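Suppose you are handed a protein chain with no further information: no name, no annotation, nothing but its sequence. What can you learn? This example shows the usual starting point.
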Amino acid sequence: MSTQSVPVLAANDAASYLDLGITLALNNWPALTLAVQSNWGGPTSDDKRAWLCGAISEMLTERPETDAEDLEDVLIQVMNDEFDVVIDDESAAIVAVEIMEMKQHTDRGNFTEIQAMWEAYQLKSQQKSASAAMFKKVDAKDEDQETDDESDEEGEDVEMGDAPALVRAPREKAEPEIDDDGFTMVKKKR
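A reasonable first move is to predict its three-dimensional structure. Written in structure tokens, the prediction is:
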């Protein structure tokens, strides 16, 4: 489930806000983002991230005793099993604590933090797409210039001059060595 397809949430739907918060936390986790972008989990890496979002949501719903350490263990295990990534930078603990804090907020009906995260994520996505569009525009402009330059040069021969001759010192051929029995010694080439 990508965050762009997140439906508009009902004003007081705590479970939906928690799902959104989990999705945002995992999409903002650099280790998982790199693993997905690099397809370390195979061609279905994005689907695995979406599955992880749902699995965490389900775990928090079905096992309310879950704490940040349990969640950290799950994150580390999934990264290792599904993406072949060993997390040793404490980032899984940070993400786990962030998700557990969001759960506490949503349990109290406080959704402002998740709403702020969603707005920041949308702004970041818009900036990325604007940057990508600018890059494409500049890249297309460069291609137009190259074709103009190439068409100016077509049909024209450029004088390169003569290349310098390769100079090598002549090799001295080694005389074969003949031992006392009349056999020729074989030497290794260097």
